[in-house]
Amino acid sequence: MFKINHYTNSFISVEGDNSIIICDPWVGKTNDNGWYSYPIKNISDIKIKKFKTNFIYISHLHCDHLDFKTLKNIVNSNTIFIIKKFENNILKKRIHQFCTNKVIELDSFKKTKINKDFSVAIVPQIISNSSDLPDNINYDLDTSIIIQSNKDKTIFFNNVDTPMNLNVLKKIKKFITSNFKRNVDVFCYALGAASEFPQCFMNVNRGKEQKRIINESLEEIYSYIKFLKPKVFFPAGGTYAIYGKFYKLNKFIAQPTSQQIQKKLSKLNTKVYDLIGGGSILLNKDNFYLSKKPKIITSVFHKKFLNQIKKLKYYYEINEKKVDLPMLDRTFYNAKQNYFKILGKKNKINTK
Asked: pLDDT band for position 150 (50/70/90)?
């Protein structure tokens, strides 16, 4: 069996005959910003405990990918974490602060058999931005994962939200065909802008920028699918709702609709599924089909969802504490010293 389930954002599970890999589980509030998982609001809606998860892949440190309150509902004593072998080791340290479970650190671009069901490979962040703009910082944050069924050799490439362009995709495809001896069967990718832009920027025409970003992302995914030629594509990553007093900004979030994606990719020989909200696809005799429909997102559902989360408060509205100004000064000074220490190790960065 090879079954893929998609819940919210980059929260995906891949089921084999005897084991499951869960990727970036997150449901509910994030800890560090105003994001709320969409369209699934509560972990109880997923019934995740039945999974008896064998492996959890954490792509990177961002709070919509590493969410400990969701992990509490999933991790059992036998769960093994899969992460990239990062130079700074922070991700591994944070996982071990949360639990004592085994953590497998994988080198980039190295195929690894993790059990009878699956072989995987970690793809590192190669560029810092999808527009290929120049920068002087060697980012080592995001990762993607390639998951292959050892039984039927099916390949799933979960790009998560790693910055991408066609040159990067060519490099990844070359690695897959050389090391996994097969083309990508299933591909998922985050469309639109998973950021504060344009909704939080007051000095731009947010409606115009929203439309521009959506159109650019549709053009990008068309070129990626045309080149990669997967059997199946589904959008995943970068989906969220804004909760609390800023909920009205939701209307400016730059993410294409399912209908826009379907229309843009309709001329390509790739099946396009909208799985967000609990949908599943299942492999049967080398063909994928929709085995479980996702949550239907109607305008009524969307309005009801926003009405529920707009009542939620941010942490600083709930826990009002007297500000310790000397402590803040010390924290800022220590952060500045640490910043300069890092710059000293990266000789290529020109800060002048």
From this structure: very high
